[in-house]
Amino acid sequence: TCCLVIRFDLPETVASFIQSRGRARMPQSEYAFLVNSGNQKERDLIETFRQDEAHMNMEIAFRTSSETFVGSADRVYKVDSSGASIGSGYSISLLHKYCSKLPHDEYFDPNPKFFFFNDLGGTVCQIILPSNAPIHQIVGTQQSSMEDAKKDVCLKAIEELHKLGALNDFLLPQQDNANEVELVSSDSDSTEDEDPRGELHEMLVPDALKEPWSSSEDLVSLSSYYIKFNPVPEDRIYRSFGLFVKAPLPVEAETMELDLHLAHSRSVITKLVPSGFANFGKDEIVLAQNFQEMFLKLVLDRMKFVSDYVPLGRHDRSSSSTFYLLLPVMLGNDDKIASIDWGTI
To answer: How many CB atoms lie within 10 A of CB 101?
Structure first.
C-alpha cells in the first residue's frame, strides 16, 4: 500500500490535486510536490488547491450553497418483466461488456467502433458492432455534444440487443451454455487465494497427439523425434530428449524452428530431428509412461513432491486427450536418436 506520493509536475485542477493524493492510502501518508525554488506562483497554486479542497469538503458536509447543476436528462431503458433498468450514462460500459463476451481469439478484438457526424441540429453518433453480433450498426439521434450522442446511441443499442434476445431480462449477456464457467475480469477485486489469471483459454490438441496406444499391446511402435536445443549464447549443454508419438508429425513440423526466449536475455533455438521409429515392449511402455508422469510432476506441479513418496500409474490414460512421450535419449553421430536412455529412466 502506498504511503508517499511525489508529484513532479503541478496538477492542473483541484480534482487532479485530490485524486493524486488519494493514491496514498496508508494512515499518516505524505503528499509532496517538486516546485522551482523561489517560484511563489507555484506555491500559491498549491495553496489555492488546498483552499478549494477545504471548500468542497465543507460544501459536501453542510450543503451551504443553493446552486444546482442542470445537465442533460439521462434517458433510461427499463425491462418491465424484471424491473431491470439502465441509464444512458451506464449503457456505454454495458455495451463494451457485451462485446467482450462475444467469441473471439487473439486476432479478433470484438470492440464496438464509434463514428461521429456533425449536422446542423447537433452531433450524431454511429456504432459499428463486431461482425458476430446480431446487429451490425446503430445510428443515434442528434445531440448537443459528442458525449451525449455516444450515450444516446449506446442506450439504443442496448435496447435493440435486448429485444433480439442477446441480453436477457436482467440486461446481462446471454450465456450459450448454462453450465459455462464465468470468466472473471482481470480488473475485478480478488483475494490472495484466487487464481490471478483473469481469463481461461481453450486447449487445442494437435491431431498428431490424439492417436492413442494401448499398454496391453506386446509391441508399440512410435515415431521418434530428437528435440535439438541450440542455446544462445552457446555456454551450456542441454540434456538430450526425444518426442515419441503414435502418428508421424506433419512435414512442416520437421522443418520448423522455434526461438524460445528465456530469462536474462537468453534464448534457445529448438527444432525437431526425425529419427525413424522406436519399438517399446509392454513393460517398457509402462516404465516410460511412469517416468514421464514423475518428470512432469517435478517440472510442472512441484506440490506433488511435498511427501517423499509419489504414487505413479494411477491415472487412467484411456480418458486422456493427448498421447506422447518425452524421454531422455542417447544420440548417434548424425544428430538422430540412437537409443532410449533406459538407465536414466
So the answer is: 16
pLDDT at 26: 83
Reported pTM: 0.42
Task: Report the alpha-carbon distance of residue 20 to residue 244 in Å, rounded.
Answer: 58
DSSP secondary structure code for residue 262 in this structure: -
C-alpha cell at 40: 511563489
Please name every residue paired with 165 in a beta bridge, in sequence order, or none if there are none: none
**Residues 173, 97: Cα–Cα separation, whole Å:** 8
For helices 14-21 and 40-62, angle between their N-to-C axes, nearest 10 degrees: 80
For residue 177, pLDDT over 90 is answered with: no
Q: Which domains are seen in the chain, by residue range?
A: 4-62 (no CATH), 76-163 (3.30.160.20), 207-340 (no CATH)
Is the pLDDT assigned to residue 115 strictly greater than 50?
Answer: yes
Burial state string for 21-44 with b = 16 or more CB within 10 A and e = fewer than 16: beebeeeeeeeebebeeeeeeeee
Q: What is the DSSP string of 265-332?
A: T-EEEEEEEEEEEEEEEHHHHHHHHHHHHHHHHHHH-GGGGSSS----S-S-GGG-S---EEEEEEE-
Asked if the peptide bond before residue 173 counts as cis, ω within 30 degrees of 0, the response is: no
Tens-place pLDDT, residues 301-340: 655 555 566 666 655 555 566 788 999 999 988 888 889 9
Helix axes 88-100, 146-163, angle to 10 degrees: 60
Residue-wise pLDDT tens digits, 249-279: 888 888 888 888 877 778 899 999 999 999 9
Strand partners, 77: 86
